[in-house]
Amino acid sequence: MMEVRMRVKGVIRTQNTLDEVLNEIKFNDNFIITFHMNPDYDAVGSALAMFYILREIGKNALVVSEEDNSVIKKNFSFLPLYEEIKEISVLNELNPGDYTLISLDSGEEKRLGRTFSKDIGQFKKVINIDHHYDNNLFGDVNYIDSEVSGTGEIIYRIVELLNIELNKELATLIYASIVGDSGSFRFDSTKPSTHLIAAKLLETGIKASFFTKNMYQNKSIDFIKFEGELFTNIKTALDNKIVWVVITNEILNKYNLSDSDTEPVVEDIGRIKDCKVYFTIKEKIKRGLITVALRSKDDIDVSKVAQKFGGGGHKSASGISFDISLGLENVEKKIVEELKEIV
């Protein structure tokens, strides 16, 4: 793998090998595992799989998230070990200097949440494992592979290198990670190696239908009604090549939905035949943010637009956060103007 070097807060950070990551794990005993806010299946599945691995090799590990515990339970309770995810308050009972932090699936420390971002320097060391090509190498040890479909593929490599027995429990966690971030094997990040890993996981006896039911066939009637109203007000530009919706706090309250409930919306927009770029704009009043989820087809690079506004991600899937004071209309105008330049 090509060496990557980056200056972060005056310190030169370097891409490391997976062997170097495993050495850090070998020579440390206490670990805290975390993942990005507004977590997806790759983040949570990878974190729980890493917890399983560390437990198997005799390490002391905790999974800690700044995400609301009710969100974790609502979206990920079908996953083995989900109850091991602790709320951020557990850190008050610990000395961070005694723990190595393992960050999974997060391109930068601020995506881990305010507490982790602020206190990240207090941990004994930080191991950063991710698949986002624009990862800023914020760890003391960094392993980034942007060629894989998701962090779950990297976790599978660790399982193999450590000779961990692959059973149904572990396979379920990794398979959920891979299915989630590969778009059920629809995205270009899906490689032959992705399918080979999936085959190995399925050989443990897990069923693909279990993931379909729990990840995609799990919407409430309120969510369906919400999408009906939302799509009535869908917006387009350039003869439907650009398509988007605006999700306000008002409509979420109307249908008694949380922000995490709306994650499938952006992919549903992508079903429109002629659209090349599609996105959602979300109002997040509690966090004081307006977030934009960008998606694209036909090799259009939306990450360039995201980077202009301090966001990032992948070529076909990126995100941006704005301060809520900017206003929905201003954010909408800025994003559409930039997208018109690349479509």
Question: Summed up, what is this model?
Answer:
The chain has 343 residues and is α/β, with parallel strands linked by helices. Helix content is 36%, strand content 21%. It has two domains: 5-215, inorganic pyrophosphatase (n-terminal core), CATH 3.90.1640.10; 221-340, Diaminopimelate Epimerase, Chain A, domain 1 (Roll), CATH 3.10.310.30.
Detailed description of the structure:
By secondary structure, the chain is of the alpha/beta class. The chain has two domains: 5-215, inorganic pyrophosphatase (n-terminal core) (Alpha-Beta Complex); 221-340, Roll (Diaminopimelate Epimerase, Chain A, domain 1), CATH 3.10.310. It is 36% helix and 21% strand. It contains 13 helices and 14 strands. The strands form three sheets. Strands 5-4-3-6-7-8 form a six-stranded parallel β-sheet, covered by helices on one side. Strands 9-10-11-12-14-13 form a six-stranded mixed β-sheet. A two-stranded antiparallel ribbon has the order 1-2. Helix 5 (151-161) packs antiparallel against helix 6 and helix 6 (168-181) packs antiparallel against helix 7. The chain is globular, with a radius of gyration of 20 Å.
Main features:
343 residues; alpha/beta; inorganic pyrophosphatase (n-terminal core); Diaminopimelate Epimerase, Chain A, domain 1; six-stranded parallel sheet; 13 helices; 36% helix
